[in-house]
Write a structure and sequence with these properties.
It is a single chain. With 246 residues, this protein is α/β, with parallel strands linked by helices. The chain has a single domain, classed as Vaccinia Virus protein VP39 (Rossmann fold, 3-Layer(aba) Sandwich). It is 33% helix and 22% strand. It is built from eight helices and eleven strands. The strands form three sheets. It has a seven-stranded mixed beta sheet with strand order 3-2-1-4-5-11-10, with helices on both faces. Strands 6-9 form a two-stranded antiparallel sheet. Strand 2, helix 5 and strand 3 form a beta-alpha-beta unit. The two termini are 31 Å apart.
Amino acid sequence: MMKNLNAELYSNELLEVWSKKSHLLLSEKMLFKKYLVNTSKNVLDVGTGGGRLAFYVENLGFDSIRAFDIVPGMIDYAIERGKTLNSKVKFEVGDATELLQYSSESFDYALYMQQVLNFIPTESGFKNALKESYRILKPGGIVFFSFLDYDSRRFNPLLNTFVNLIRRVRNETLLRHRLPWLKINGKFNWKLFNKNQACAYWVKEKEIIDQLKTLGYDILEVKNQSDFKASKPTQKKGMLYIVCSK
């Protein structure tokens, strides 16, 4: 099994910062306000980290929320923070590629935000996670996805070519749109071209929409992060958001 270097990164260098994040982005607030309308329904928060979104959704009035993360340290923090907030959110360790702990058609809402699927280390794992998202969602349920958008950075094609050239020289597997982290905790990653670097998968909008439709999803909304601002730049910037229904 391939080592999950992203999980190791979040377990170590990124744990302190990401476990304590609490604020929401404008894009997240606007999408939740529009679609998270029935507080009697249940919610699954995937890749919850320190519980940032789960606690926010609970404050909206939802009282049936489950949340998981692949990093045990994140869940430890979320559980402790939940105690101080008198929260009812059920936190647990889990892997988005294989949700054996959840029965089919279990959830009305599923939050696949924070670009969680982009940090799965294999293409097969990414595809399995998409399939699992569909399986655990109830008919008529709504799922929120956010993805790293390949076209949101002008230099991605050049970086992709250069990284694969290095992989070819090392006789490593060539990987499409899997790029090393440029920054870690806001600091430039000087080791980004070293061997065995954590990489994130950047999606192309049309390709990911086609994948979701093939699974059976109906696409409700597609927006780039820049679309939520009053002044929209000519170049797409930030995450790609896709809201689907089953």
